[in-house]
Design goal:
heterotrimer, A mainly alpha (about 300), B mainly alpha (about 290), C alpha/beta (about 250), B: about 290 residues, mainly alpha, MetI-like fold, two-stranded antiparallel sheet, globular, C: alpha/beta, Rossmann fold, four-stranded antiparallel β-sheet, about 25% strand
């Protein structure tokens, strides 16, 4: 009986260990395939032409600059929306709301995080975009601004849940110490709790940015899809095209193995590296904060 | 002088709290409004025919059954690949892994998988499953793609649930002559199961609503029949909604809202099930 | 008196190099209560955890020495650790009941060993509860969750849980530290009965408990075994000054 137990347990343990390593395998696999199909770009297109300001694949123009600026402008706008509202809501849930409100609000925000982005994009087209067109008197409602608003709304749940966890994790003793010194709850939030949760809040912001950069469908549906270089502030109110939308929109019509195909994979590579960068930055913030905490507590 | 000073601070708090509360309302209100709006606008389209029939006239009439079934198939397919692998990986991280550079690399890899844009997953799925492994545009390719995308979510929530089980239980089990796996199976896994299940359902909910990963790996706009094998392509609710709202001219608004509503209900039901499992487990917990 | 356990020159180290036990040599007679007492940090709990190889899970490693149980060195990497842990049962300081019914708590160890027969399991449940002096109190609610029991009852359940495996040696690490005097008394009374059958090693949570229960007593101070003799003599006429100082409360 012991013997068969050992053999069975041995196999299971091996399988579990292999599963543990699988995450590394998948990341490597993804990177490998992106590179495999993306690298040929450099042999088929002159590298400097990639930095052109015209994206017009039909005429073999593969300037990705307008796509990059498109992504930047929409992400920036989304961040400007998501960060204040996200952190504000997190503060509300964690520090101000009575328990019963918290019990309702937390699942509600989680619900928003689960809404499919295509549904939000859909409402963006039918509701938000016409509204903005009329309200702001624009030629079209499908602009970077619309995209920013929508994207901000999509990124908010991420910011809220991570920031709220960070605020919640601040030890009660910190707040009580401040109250004992005569601070109001408001003062305590801004001078004690928020700074103490600094690294978690920063992580929340970075993850929110990551979410915004990576969003595809909603952005594709409401930003107008015009690969025009965004140069002035006014560009915010004209159509743009993001990197993600470009891939999604054009991949279906592209011949496998063609130059256009390779360039799209190249854009995918760029997106992969950007998200890698954001994630590493976010985890190094957490890591450094943990080290700081360990030093203080030891 | 003292009184004016304290009045100032309390006024600041009043204003501040009001401002933050308004922000929270401004964040939450759109959520509620969105759901209600879709409910109201989409309800008229819902009928037995809509839910069980096939589309006609270039999607402009008839039902969306193939899209519903397709989403169901994709969700099940995703579950088949991501759930066992994800839970096993979580068990490894929680019960077996020591704090070594290798373990830290695994964790970074998981964080990265979580952050990769969904359309990049679509590209990867196209490159590996559709083309290289020659599965073609199929339920299989799409499910595999969605599985890898869902993996980090399942791993993190499952690991958290496993870690929440008190260490003392493990010590007791070992001291009674249990092996590590016996301890995991009989106690740790059993107690962590509700939390793991919640995480799985939330992960699958997200997979069900995604469009970009299935765009080039498995989704088709119109199929005359329901898919018969995993190697067939399929219609799917998110993709269907996308196409009918952006690419079909003269598409009746009602059908668009109806489709959005069905997708919403699909996703929200999963959310509800997960929430119920979580609260019931919390009430029944014996520790 | 037969010596059940012989500890020879045992030294233990933490993985960072600091010493936990230094050259401890001790014999534990069978079917008696041997008490390991002394101030915190003395290495008593660590020694207990060596006896059932629970230290395998922690960062403490034996650096030298042997522990012989019935003549076999249990620190040998080749021995069957699972069988050892069934032979050497342990009760911890805080009652840790498993998240199951009372009955399931008791049959857990046997089920781990592969015992499936209902009759054997039932018999073990009744036998071990009686040995732990808990049977009368719970025999009508065996299917109730164990968490519903009081602290003292839970601790006796933990004792019964170990007894269900029919061990030969029972280790108790400050088993009554969280309990009220009445529950403590019940546990100590159970030990008096149990020592007729089992070899018991107890780390008490007070010197008074040590004096009440010890047939043999060992005084540990900072990893070193200072003095060891029969309980009666050690607590009335200790040979070492350090022992006497501790017992009389001059330090602690």
């Amino acid at each position: 009986m012991e013997k068969s137990l050992n053999w069975y347990e041995f196999i299971i343990t091996r399988l579990i260990k292999a599963s543990g390593y699988s995450a590394i395998l998948f990341v490597a696999l993804i990177f490998f395939f992106l590179v495999r199909e993306g690298i040929p770009t450099f042999s088929e297109v002159e590298s400097t032409s990639l930095l052109n300001i015209r994206w017009y694949p039909i005429e073999d123009r593969f300037g990705i600059l307008p796509l990059i600026t498109g992504s930047i402008i929409v992400t920036l706008g989304a961040t400007l929306v998501a960060v204040p509202f996200g952190i504000g809501t997190a503060i509300f849930i964690s520090e101000i709301a009575p328990r019963w409100v918290r019990e309702i609000l937390k699942p509600l925000v989680e619900l928003l995080g689960g809404l499919p982005s295509v549904v939000l994009g859909f409402l963006g087209i039918l509701v938000l975009s016409p509204f903005l067109r009329v309200f702001l008197d624009l030629p079209t409602g499908l602009t970077a601004f619309t995209g920013s608003l929508l994207l901000g709304g999509i990124a908010v749940p991420t910011v809220v849940s991570v920031a709220e966890d960070a605020l919640d994790a601040v030890p009660r003793a910190y707040r009580e110490g401040a109250w004992a010194l005569g601070a109001t709850r408001w003062q305590t939030i801004w001078r004690v709790t928020l700074p103490a949760a600094r690294s978690g809040v920063l992580t929340a912001i970075m993850l929110g940015i990551g979410r915004a950069i990576g969003e595809t469908m909603a952005v594709m549906m409401v930003t107008g899809n015009a690969p025009v270089l965004a140069t002035r502030l006014g560009s915010l109110f004209s159509p743009v095209r993001t990197m993600t939308a470009t891939i999604a929109a054009e991949m279906g019509e592209v011949a496998s193995g063609s130059t256009h195909y390779h360039v799209l994979f190249f854009i995918g590579m760029v997106l992969f590296l950007i998200s890698l960068g954001v994630n590493i930055a976010a985890s190094s913030v957490v890591f450094r904060a943990k080290k700081r905490a360990e030093r203080i507590l030891s | 002088m003292r009184r004016a000073f304290s009045l100032n601070r309390h006024l600041a708090q009043r204003l501040g709290f009001t401002f933050i509360t308004l922000m929270a309302i401004a964040t939450v209100l759109p959520i509620v409004a969105t759901v209600i709006y879709i409910l109201v606008k989409g309800a008229p389209a819902i009928s037995l025919e809509f839910l069980t029939g096939f589309p006609h006239d270039g999607m402009r009439a008839g039902g969306i059954l193939p899209a519903i079934i397709g989403t169901l198939y994709l969700t099940i397919g995703t579950a088949i690949f991501s759930v066992p692998l994800g839970i096993a990986a979580a068990i490894y991280l929680s019960e077996y892994a020591a704090d070594t550079p290798l373990t830290r690399t695994i964790r970074i890899a998981i964080i990265n998988l979580a952050g990769i844009p969904s359309v990049v997953y679509g590209l990867f799925g196209l490159g590996l499953f559709v083309l290289f492994l020659n599965f073609g545009t199929s339920i299989l390719a799409a499910s595999l793609t969605l599985s890898i995308m869902t993996l980090p979510v399942i791993i993190s929530t499952a690991e958290e649930s496993l870690r929440a089980v008190p260490q003392a239980f493990r010590t007791v089990s070992i001291s009674l002559g249990g092996t590590r796996w016996q301890t995991i199976r009989r106690i740790v896994l059993k107690e962590a199961l509700p939390g793991i299940l919640t995480g799985v359902i939330l992960g699958l909910e997200r997979a069900a609503g995604e469009t970009a990963p299935i765009l080039f790996t498995g989704a088709a706009f119109f199929l005359p029949r329901l898919p018969g094998s995993p190697f067939d392509a399929t219609m799917a609710l998110p993709y269907h909604l996308f196409v009918i709202s952006t690419q079909v001219p003269e598409m009746p608004i009602q059908i668009q809202y109806g489709t959005a509503l069905v997708l919403l209900v699909f996703v929200l039901t999963m959310n509800l099930i997960a929430t119920v499992i979580r609260s019931r487990a919390r009430a029944r917990r014996q520790w | 008196m037969v010596d059940k356990i012989i500890i020879e020159d045992l030294s233990l180290q933490y993985s960072d190099g600091t010493e936990s036990l230094r050259d401890v040599s001790l014999t534990v007679p069978e079917k008696a209560v041997t008490v390991l007492f002394g101030p915190a940090g003395g290495g008593k709990s660590t020694l207990l955890r060596c006896l059932n190889r629970l230290n395998d899970l922690t960062e403490v490693k034996a650096s030298s020495g042997r522990i012989l149980i019935d003549g076999q060195n249990i620190l040998d990497p080749d021995i069957d650790v699972i069988a050892l842990r069934r032979k050497v049962g342990m009760v911890f300081a805080r009652p840790v009941v498993l998240p199951m019914s009372i009955r399931e708590n008791l049959t857990y160890g046997l089920e781990l060993a592969g015992e499936k027969r209902r009759s054997k399991l039932d018999e073990a449940v009744e036998r071990s509860l009686k040995l732990a002096a808990l049977w009368e109190e719970v025999d009508d609610r065996l299917e109730d969750p164990a968490i519903a029991l009081s602290g003292g009852q839970q601790q006796r359940l933990c004792l019964a849980r170990s007894l269900a495996l029919q061990p030969e040696i029972i280790l108790l690490d400050e088993p009554t530290s969280g309990l009220d005097p009445i529950s403590t008394g019940k546990v100590e009374a159970a030990l008096v009965e149990l020592k007729k059958e089992f070899t018991i090693i107890l780390v008490p949570h007070s010197v008074q408990q040590a004096a009440r229960t010890a047939d043999y007593a060992a005084f540990f101070l900072q990893g070193e075994l200072v003095e060891y003799s029969e309980g009666k003599t050690l607590f009335t006429a200790p040979k070492e000054k350090r022992t006497e100082d501790y017992i009389t409360g001059r330090f602690g």
